[in-house]
Amino acid sequence: MQPNALVALFDQQAPGYDRQWAKTAAIRDCMYLLLEPLLAGLPEDAHVLCVGVGTGQELAHLAKTFPRWQFVAVDPSGAMIDACRTRAEAEGFAGRCRFHHGFLESLPTEAPFDAATCFLVSQFLVDRAARVRFFAGIAARLRPDGLLASSDLAFDTASPGYDVLLPAWMRMMSMADVSPEALQRIREAYGRDVAVLPPREVAAILEDGGFERPVPFFQAGLIHGWVSRVPA
Question: Which of 112, 168, 159 is nearest to 138 (CA)?
Fold first, then answer.
């Protein structure tokens, strides 16, 4: 899917996005639970970049957990960044945030961030070189020894295990407010518009983007999470 079409899709989904996926929130919450101790060693006043922030779910969680952190939230979808801003204002942490509507490369170069988050974003870059450049853009904005917490859909789609896990994953997704027709489109998109790669290949892409030793810290179904570090 071309970037403009992808942005238009997320613009359309933004108003009902959180409500649609509320029944699968346990997956997200488990990842956040495991993420907190990985980020707990950052400075009390850490500056954190949230890439592809969407409606701001991870931003809200981190802002509540770490009350002195400052954030820059980036998303190319205007409707998503508006929803994120509305959430931050309603929950009282907007004063610690700056909201940037645009792709990562449009974010001006500024002082390095202590950490970044990027959840379920890079999977939409089906060209490997573009995906490497995307992670390199994040690495370039982190201080030496800075951390990236990322997640993406990942699996060896050529393995027998995929034939077991994919139908179960689709049944789980059917718990959300997704029509059977939409589920079929999602399943087809996994082979066309979403780069579902083996986890070892995603880790290799992170390394090629400038991170060292990506460490897997989470898996739920097809979602895998890594914590990676910029060399000191």
Answer: 112
Helices (H), 69-214: 78-91, 128-139, 160-173, 180-189, 199-208
Between strands 223-229 and 212-220, the pairing is antiparallel
Domain harbouring 189, CATH code: 3.40.50.150
Total number of domains in the chain: 1
| Sheet with 47-51, edge to edge strand ranges | 97-101, 70-75, 47-51, 113-119, 142-153, 223-229, 212-220
* Lookup: tokens for 208: 């090629």
**Are the beta carbons of 140 and 99 closer than 8 angstroms?**
no
CB 31 within 8 A of CB 180: no
204: domain range?
3-229
- Residue-by-residue pLDDT tens, the chain, 232 positions: 678 888 888 888 888 888 888 889 999 999 999 999 999 999 999 999 999 999 999 999 999 999 999 999 999 999 999 999 999 999 999 999 999 999 999 998 777 999 999 999 999 999 999 999 999 999 999 999 999 999 999 999 999 999 999 999 988 888 777 777 877 887 777 878 899 999 999 999 999 999 998 999 999 999 999 999 999 9
